[in-house]
């Protein structure tokens, strides 16, 4: 009994040594699990053949993005994707099992990087790291579906590891490479830009952004020289129409509303508003808001100081994960492979709330179950959204009853307060 008690006590710790030991053990277990999946579970074809067809056009000499396409439609990813999957085409000779081995490597490398982020952050107890290896859907995305999303998130997580160390230029270079594979990583861009403006010098910010821009130009230069509009339109099409059948979060809407420009514009506006509120009232609250934080950093730089504020590793990680989560919450549509965009940040965000542990695990489990329901249904989507709206209304009513406050304050508290209800509200969009 004492042994069990000691073990449980040890697993509840957040020190670097314990987290590292548990992470190493879980990594080994998950590596074995990936091998079992590879040997026992059949591969499912979705996009691999299309990827190979898209890059074949490039390898045959085509540089006009309007003429690059596969069996599922036109090529809609930036130049980094083309180079990556052209290399995979050569390495694998288009053989799926060989490609799966490479993607198992991508998955395990990503897991190692994520474990490093968690160990350095000391954000969760050691036992909670197991949540990072239990997702059926995420294993499928990497090992059985071979989506480019997995590679993109590997690069994004590596960049976060560098940001934690405040190696902004190196981090931005890797971040830009991730964007060149798939532009969903841009959801991290607003909080990242805020961190640059408030936590480092203007000169470092300029160098980092310039390096990122050079990467983007380099990734697209072959295509930009031939047909720049085609490359930009296809690679970074913010107005892209999604297929209603694959939507996980808006299935309860009529298809015409789902496809409407009105819904897209509304979600974008709410997304930007949420980012602004978090930036001003949460991420720069200790400085008195975003304007004061940025101006204070500029004044400090003018006086010769490197920065006016020492950003903590925890703050950097929280801002980046939260900013990405906000983008997911108000996404135009979520397809199944998009789950890996934020899955690895869910335990971190849950332990940033004051929820009871059992509630944290329950929320994690609910999200996992939802993402494994196929096909998504109006009932599942409506259940998530209805719970979200009820929570918003109840929290707003509670705030209004306690004290007469400005509407903005009420909305901010409902949206951003670190409470169990609020996190369930956010997760309801997922």
UniProtKB/TrEMBL annotation:
GO molecular function: dol-P-Man:Man(5)GlcNAc(2)-PP-Dol alpha-1,3-mannosyltransferase activity
InterPro entries linked to this entry: Glycosyltransferase_ALG3
Catalytic activity: an alpha-D-Man-(1->2)-alpha-D-Man-(1->2)-alpha-D-Man-(1->3)-[alpha-D-Man-(1->6)]-beta-D-Man-(1->4)-beta-D-GlcNAc-(1->4)-alpha-D-GlcNAc-diphospho-di-trans,poly-cis-dolichol + a di-trans,poly-cis-dolichyl beta-D-mannosyl phosphate = an alpha-D-Man-(1->2)-alpha-D-Man-(1->2)-alpha-D-Man-(1->3)-[alpha-D-Man-(1->3)-alpha-D-Man-(1->6)]-beta-D-Man-(1->4)-beta-D-GlcNAc-(1->4)-alpha-D-GlcNAc-diphospho-di-trans,poly-cis-dolichol + a di-trans,poly-cis-dolichyl phosphate + H(+)
Topology in membrane: Multi-pass membrane protein
EC number of this enzyme: 2.4.1.258
Transmembrane domains' residue ranges: 21-43, 75-92, 99-119, 168-189, 201-226, 259-279
Domain of life: Eukaryota
Recorded metabolic or biological pathway in which this protein acts: Protein modification; protein glycosylation
UniProt protein name: dolichyl-P-Man:Man5GlcNAc2-PP-dolichol alpha-1,3-mannosyltransferase
Organism, scientific name: Cymbomonas tetramitiformis
Taxonomic path: Eukaryota, Viridiplantae, Chlorophyta, Pyramimonadophyceae, Pyramimonadales
């Amino acid at each position: 009994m004492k042994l069990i008690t000691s073990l449980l006590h040890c697993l509840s710790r957040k020190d670097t040594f314990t987290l590292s030991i548990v992470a190493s053990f879980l990594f080994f277990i998950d590596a074995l699990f990936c091998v079992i999946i590879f040997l026992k579970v059949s591969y499912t074809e979705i996009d691999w053949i299309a990827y190979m067809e898209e890059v074949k056009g490039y390898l045959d000499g085509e540089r006009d993005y309007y003429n690059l396409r596969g069996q599922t439609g036109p090529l809609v990813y930036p130049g980094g994707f083309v180079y990556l999957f052209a290399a995979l085409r050569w390495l694998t000779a288009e053989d799926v099992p060989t490609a799966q081995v490479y993607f198992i490597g991508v998955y395990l490398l990503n897991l190692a990087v994520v474990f490093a982020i968690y160990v350095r952050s000391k954000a969760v107890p050691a036992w909670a790291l197991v949540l990072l290896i239990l997702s059926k859907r995420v294993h499928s995305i990497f090992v059985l579906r071979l989506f480019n999303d997995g590679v993109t998130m590997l690069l994004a997580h590596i960049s976060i590891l560098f940001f934690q160390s405040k190696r902004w230029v190196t981090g931005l270079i890797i971040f830009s490479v991730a964007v060149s594979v798939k532009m969903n990583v841009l959801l991290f861009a607003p909080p990242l830009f805020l961190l640059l403006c408030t936590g480092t010098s203007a000169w470092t910010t300029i160098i980092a952004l310039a390096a990122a821009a050079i990467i983007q130009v380099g990734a697209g230069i072959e295509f930009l020289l031939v047909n720049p509009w085609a490359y930009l339109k296809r690679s970074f099409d913010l107005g892209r129409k999604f297929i209603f059948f694959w939507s996980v979060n808006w299935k309860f809407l009529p298809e015409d509303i789902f496809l409407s420009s009105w819904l897209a514009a509304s979600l974008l506006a709410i997304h930007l508003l949420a980012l602004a509120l978090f930036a001003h009232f949460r991420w720069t609250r200790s400085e008195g808001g975003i304007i004061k934080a940025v101006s204070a950093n500029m004044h400090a730089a003018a006086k010769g100081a490197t920065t006016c504020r020492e950003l903590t590793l925890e703050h950097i990680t929280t801002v980046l994960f939260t900013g990405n989560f906000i983008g997911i919450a108000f996404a135009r549509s979520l397809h199944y492979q998009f789950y890996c965009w934020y899955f690895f940040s869910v335990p971190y965000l849950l332990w940033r709330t004051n929820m009871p542990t059992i509630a944290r695990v329950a929320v994690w489990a609910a999200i996992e179950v939802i993402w494994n329901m196929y096909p998504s249904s109006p009932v599942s989507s409506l259940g998530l959204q209805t719970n979200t709206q009820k929570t918003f209304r109840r929290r707003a009513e509670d705030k209004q009853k306690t004290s007469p406050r400005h509407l903005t304050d009420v909305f901010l508290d409902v949206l951003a307060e670190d409470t169990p209800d609020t996190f369930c509200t956010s997760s309801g969009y997922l």
